[in-house]
Each structure stands twice: as structure tokens, then as C-alpha cells.
Design goal:
257 residues, alpha+beta, Alpha-Beta Plaits, four-stranded antiparallel β-sheet, 5 helices
């Protein structure tokens, strides 16, 4: 049997409108709740990020302070290194007392020295051990040198092209002792090379004797061009150390002996 609806259409339209309004309210409430939740979450996240940023700013400021302190320490270390290099360089030339000790101690009894002359000799500017200091690639910007570094460079430019020469004159009745003496000098830690410059026979004396001239080239001091490292304790050519020379106040000094 077919149902007959006696209600007018306006009632059905009102019912549909009420249901639609309910759904609209539900959707509005749902979207409003979602927006409120998102806003609340963003506010909480923003507050949390501000706290983290405050903590990181404190750490950042602390790290920046440490970086500045490190830079200051590195600058002080570099300055101290330049001053130490300058101080070390000022320890040459070798004191005359040490050079005399190197010459006299291995001297045989048969040899008599009549003259000892110490002088500085200019070296050619293109000598291997007189090469200019390495300043790094030319493309690098030249930094302003420290005062100690600048003084060291000027001293090296002036002094590293000079060699200390010791010239010995004397006589001996035994030529073999002279050659042994030259060999001992060549084994000395302060003498880079020892050679016989001249020999002259003197028969006016009894017994006959030989007059000689020796030329000794002194090894560069530590810090000079041509020096391979810290100088070894002075020896007499037989391997016997003369470190007691330093203990007696004869250590190298900038003014020489």
C-alpha cells in the first residue's frame, strides 16, 4: 500500500534546512577547533624556540669570546716566536773564546802558533746557504711584519752573507803533526772546513821547520742560513765534548768573545 504524505512541502524544506544548519555548525566547530589547536601549537613552539634561541645566544657569545681569546693567544705565540727567533739569532757569532778553544785544545805540542786572526768574509749573494728567506707564494698578501720579525729579517740580510774566517800562522818541525792537526780541526763541530793555505820550509833553524798558514771556515750559528739545526756541543775533533765551556760563561753571545 502506498504511503501518502499529507505534510506540506514547506515543512520538509524546514527540516532539511535544520539538518543543514546542524552540519554547518559542526563543520564550523571542527574547523574552529583545528585552527585553535594549530594556533596554540604554534604559540607553544614559538615560546620553545625563543627559549632555545636564548640558550644558544649565550653559548654563541661564549664561543665568540673564546674565539677572540684564541686569536689573541695565537698572536701572542707568534710574537713570542719571532722574539725567540731574534734572541736565538743574536747568539751568534760564536764567541772568540770558543773559537780560540777550538783551535788551541787539539794543538799538538810540536806546533807553535805565531798569529791568530779572526775576520768576517763576504759571501756571494748566490751562494746556496745565502739564499733569500722563503716568504710564501707571491700571490699571498704581504702581512705587516712584527717588529722582532722585521729586525730579524734585517739582521739576516746583513749577517747571513758573511762567514767567519780564522787564519792561523805558525811553524812546526813535524809536517805530519800539522796534517793530523788539520784533520782534527775538520772534525770539530764549530769548524766547517780547515785547509792548509801555504807551506814554506825554513832551514835557517836547527832542526829545520815548516812555516804554515791555515784557513778555517767557522760553521754558521743556529738560526743563520746554512745551519742545519741547533749546534752540537763543541768538540775537539776527537769526539770529546767541551760543554764545560758553556758552564764557564763562554756560551755564545751576540757580541762575541
Amino acid at each position: 500500500m502506498k504511503n501518502i504524505d499529507f505534510l506540506p512541502d514547506i515543512y520538509r524544506q524546514r527540516a532539511a534546512l535544520r539538518k543543514a544548519r546542524i552540519w554547518w555548525c559542526a563543520v564550523v566547530v571542527l574547523f574552529g577547533g583545528a585552527i585553535s589547536s594549530a594556533f596554540t601549537a604554534q604559540v607553544w613552539l614559538r615560546v620553545s624556540l625563543k627559549r632555545q634561541l636564548a640558550a644558544l645566544e649565550e653559548s654563541f657569545l661564549s664561543s665568540q669570546t673564546q674565539v677572540r681569546e684564541l686569536a689573541n693567544l695565537q698572536a701572542q705565540i707568534a710574537k713570542s716566536a719571532h722574539e725567540a727567533s731574534l734572541f736565538t739569532y743574536l747568539q751568534h757569532p760564536w764567541p772568540r773564546t770558543q773559537l780560540l778553544a777550538q783551535v788551541v785544545r787539539p794543538l799538538p805540542k810540536s806546533i807553535r802558533l805565531t798569529q791568530i786572526h779572526v775576520s768576517d768574509e763576504e759571501l756571494p749573494r748566490d751562494a746556496p746557504h745565502a739564499a733569500p728567506l722563503h716568504r710564501g707564494p707571491e700571490t699571498e698578501p704581504a702581512a705587516k711584519p712584527q717588529p722582532a720579525e722585521d729586525d730579524l729579517a734585517k739582521l739576516q740580510q746583513e749577517m747571513d752573507f758573511k762567514a767567519t774566517i780564522v787564519q792561523l800562522q805558525g811553524f812546526t818541525p813535524e809536517a805530519a803533526d800539522l796534517h793530523e792537526y788539520v784533520a782534527l780541526l775538520n772534525g770539530s763541530s764549530l769548524i766547517a772546513a780547515a785547509q792548509i793555505k801555504s807551506l814554506e820550509s825554513d832551514s835557517t833553524h836547527d832542526p829545520p821547520r815548516t812555516r804554515f798558514t791555515l784557513r778555517l771556515i767557522v760553521h754558521p750559528g743556529y738560526g743563520q742560513r746554512g745551519s742545519e739545526g741547533p749546534p752540537a756541543p763543541p768538540t775537539d775533533g776527537r769526539g770529546q765534548s767541551w760543554t764545560r765551556l758553556r758552564g764557564n760563561g763562554n756560551a755564545p753571545s751576540g757580541g762575541g768573545g
